[in-house]
Specification:
Elements (H helix, E strand, L loop, with lengths): L2 E9 L5 E8 L4 E5 L6 H16 L7 H11 L6 H22 L3 H4 L8 E9 L2 H13 L4 E6 L21 E2 L4 E3 L2 H19 L4 E5 L6 H11 L6 E3 L9 H8 L4 E3 L10 H5 L5 E2 L8 H13 L4 E2 L9 H13 L6 E2 L5 H6 E2 L3 E3 L2 E3 L9 E2 L1 H4 L7 E2 L2 E3 L5 E2 L2
Parallel strand pairs: 4-5, 4-13, 5-8, 7-19, 8-9, 9-10, 10-11, 11-12
Antiparallel strand pairs: 1-2, 2-3, 4-16, 6-18, 14-17, 15-16, 19-20
Helix pairs in contact: 1-3, 2-3, 3-10, 5-6, 6-7, 7-8
Bound molecules: (2S,3R,4R)-2,3,4,5-tetrahydroxy-N-oxo-pentanamide and cobalt (II) ion.
């Protein structure tokens, strides 16, 4: 099953996606998601200029060998660009393996371990009242878990709240927009938000919140303690986690569950967090973590330490990545939850998906491979357009983590 062709396809059906397409000499086609929001062309070049030419003539069935040849063979290891490129190739090779064996990828990863993949939806509003209403709409729609972000008194530009008709995931054309953040109003407001949500909807729904890397360890511990009465499913990214041992301080003070890892890309980024049981959920996603081959290894390691998987699933990754996450989390034993923001219709015209939402879970049927049909002709209708994530500064003008 020699690889005959490999290419990247850039498209912007609402937002930018980079797709790897690999074809074998016997006509099997696999697809993988290589999207790194705001830095898309770096991954496309890494693939087109340096990596894809090396694949031609290799046996598409040798996934493990190809993975190590790409990881070790570059000499330069790790990092989001490298690992996203490897991740997309790996995904496409699993897609090919599934299609050639006429079976869904989850069957190759150990088989079905659950009926469906429980997801959390994204409720948000400009005020606490609006956010409470938004949570109610998700509950009515059957979601079992809801992430809540909100505008708060004194916090004019909160993370995770849509502007106008836009969904909240920003991608600004031309220049990044500037947001401001100060921890005082945030730390005072978030417990009030969850007090109001619990009072309105009760205790039957799991609630989540994303602090988006904005606090220091002491502030994060303070917030974790203040949120304990509302029993969150998790507090996400309380601190920027390059310094893994900083989580010890948070852990010593609070039992609010912690989820971290959407910006990580190898096991080495979370080895200490997992082995010291400093987190409860690992947020790494297939595309950004070297693909199914490496993320499966991370999940098996995490299982030893009671840490569960919870793949990052924003709309700035393509539906191919979400499909790969669903196959992975259908099969993995230590599954936690899956993030879900429905892709806009334009994106699902280009990427025709096989998964569906029912009873707060995403479901997969028996279609082979990853179950996504990539429509390259439609993709060509939406050319790439440079775009950026926002940046953040504090009230005094100093740079802060976005
Ligand atoms: O900020 O996907 O949990 N979800 C998130 C996302 C990330 C974006 C970055 O591209 O934190 O909203
Ligand atoms: Co997040």
């Amino acid at each position: 099953m020699k690889i005959e062709k490999a290419r990247t396809v850039l498209t912007c059906p609402g937002r930018n996606f980079v797709t790897v397409v690999i074809e074998t000499e016997d006509g099997v086609r696999g697809v993988g998601d290589a999207t790194l929001n705001g830095r898309e062309l770096a991954v496309a070049s890494y693939l087109d200029d340096h990596v894809l030419p090396l694949l031609i003539g290799l046996d598409a069935r040798s996934i493990e060998d190809i993975w190590h040849s790409l990881y070790k063979g570059a000499y330069w290891r790790r990092g989001p660009v490298t690992m996203t490129a490897i991740g997309a190739i790996d995904m496409a090779l699993w897609d090919i393996k599934g299609k050639s064996l006429d079976t869904p990828v989850f069957n190759l990863l150990g088989g079905r371990a659950r009926d469906g993949v429980t997801v959390y939806g994204h409720a948000n509003g400009a005020t606490i009242d609006e956010s409470v209403e938004a949570v109610g709409r998700y509950v009515e729609a059957g979601y079992k878990a809801v992430r809540v972000q909100s505008g708060l008194p004194g916090l004019t530009q909160p993370y995770g709240v849509g502007r106008g008709d836009l969904c909240y995931e920003p991608a600004e054309i031309d220049r990044p927009i500037l947001e401001t953040f100060d921890s005082g109003p945030y730390l005072r407001g978030v417990p009030k938000l969850f007090e109001a949500v619990r009072a309105a909807i009760g205790w039957d729904v799991d609630l989540l919140h994303d602090a988006h890397h904005r606090l220091n360890p002491r502030e994060a511990a303070q917030l974790g303690v203040a949120l304990e009465p509302y029993q969150l499913f998790w507090l996400e990214d309380p601190v920027p986690a390059e310094l893994q041992e900083s989580l010890r301080l948070i852990r010593q003070h609070t039992v609010t569950p912690i989820a971290i890892g959407e910006v990580f890309n190898t096991l080495y980024d979370c080895q200490q967090l997992i082995s010291e049981q400093l987190i409860d959920y690992i947020r790494m996603t297939v595309a950004h973590s070297g693909g199914l081959t490496h993320l499966q290894r991370i999940a098996h390691f995490a299982e030893l330490y009671h840490v569960r998987t919870a793949c990052h699933g924003p709309t700035d990754l393509s539906p191919i990545n979400l499909a790969a996450c669903l196959h992975f989390q259908t099969a993995i034993h230590n599954f936690g939850i899956q993030e879900y923001m429905r892709h806009p219709e334009l994106a699902t015209e280009v990427f025709d998906v096989g998964y569906w939402l029912e009873d707060g879970m995403l479901h997969l049927d028996e279609r082979p491979g990853l179950g996504v049909t990539f429509n390259e002709e439609r993709a060509a209708d939406y050319p790439y357009c440079r775009a950026y994530l926002p940046v953040a500064r504090r009230g005094d003008g100093g740079v802060h983590s976005w």
